[in-house]
Specification:
Layout (H helix, E strand, L loop, with lengths): L1 E4 L5 H11 L4 E4 L10 H6 L7 E3 L5 E3 L1 H11 L10 H27 L11 H22 L13 H15 L6 H11 L2 H10 L4
Parallel strand pairs: 1-2
Antiparallel strand pairs: 1-3, 3-4
Helix pairs in contact: 1-3, 1-6, 1-8, 4-5, 4-6, 6-7
Length: about 210
């Protein structure tokens, strides 16, 4: 398999997940900051022009973080990264979906790239402020999910924990302090060898 990632982007969640699973894969740097996700070669593979992209062993391409996370969990059930209990598995996927669709796309992206949401640059500060509000509300909800828990769902490391890692990292970029439970979770995640390997591969500081 090949994972096409951008350093420190949401693809970090899949990078961490692959390291946790332990299956062989090649990590292919595709820096969004440098526009590498918009080259002709990349667009031919993923016309959505975003990361992560997973090239499967059969040559088929899979995009969208929740779909890739589910695929990897189903492909490697022995890794146990999706709880066997349906309720816990649904909890894990709920967290992943909320992170991607709301906390990331509506919150952080609105702050980081206000031009995607408003046309007039004079309105950028309002868009960014709203993005930070959504991001902060998301952190509060995620923090509440971690009350009394070591992991996000089901008592085991799961796809939800892998997704949480990049949101926890981004809080620092937005100069936002993590709530207590998320801060403790992030510290636990950074102590995991798989997370350390993913961070090192992407050139990120722990």
């Amino acid at each position: 398999m090949k994972l096409f990632y951008s350093p420190g982007a949401c693809s970090l969640g899949i990078h961490v997940l692959l390291e946790e699973i332990g299956a062989p894969f090649e990590a292919v740097r595709t820096a969004v900051r440098d526009g590498e996700h918009k080259t002709a070669a990349y667009l031919a593979m993923n016309p959505k022009a975003k990361v992560p992209t997973l090239m499967r062993d059969n040559g088929r391409v899979l995009t969208e973080l929740p779909a890739i996370a589910y695929y990897l969990a189903a492909l490697h059930p022995e890794a146990g990264v999706l709880p066997a209990d349906p309720d816990a598995a649904a909890d894990a996927m709920e967290i992943v979906e909320y992170i991607v669709a709301t906390v990331h796309m509506q919150g952080f992206t609105r702050w980081a790239r206000p031009g995607n949401f408003v046309f007039d640059e004079a309105d950028y500060p309002k868009a960014q402020a709203r993005g930070l509000e959504i991001f902060a509300t998301g952190l509060e909800w995620l923090d509440a999910k971690l009350v009394g828990r070591e992991f996000a769902a089901g008592g085991i490391f799961s796809v939800a924990d892998a997704a949480l890692v990049f949101i926890e990292l981004w809080a620092g970029r937005a100069n936002m302090a993590l709530p207590a439970n998320l801060a403790a979770h992030f510290a636990r995640m950074k102590a995991r060898p798989a997370v350390q390997r993913a961070f090192a591969a992407e050139g990120l500081s722990l």
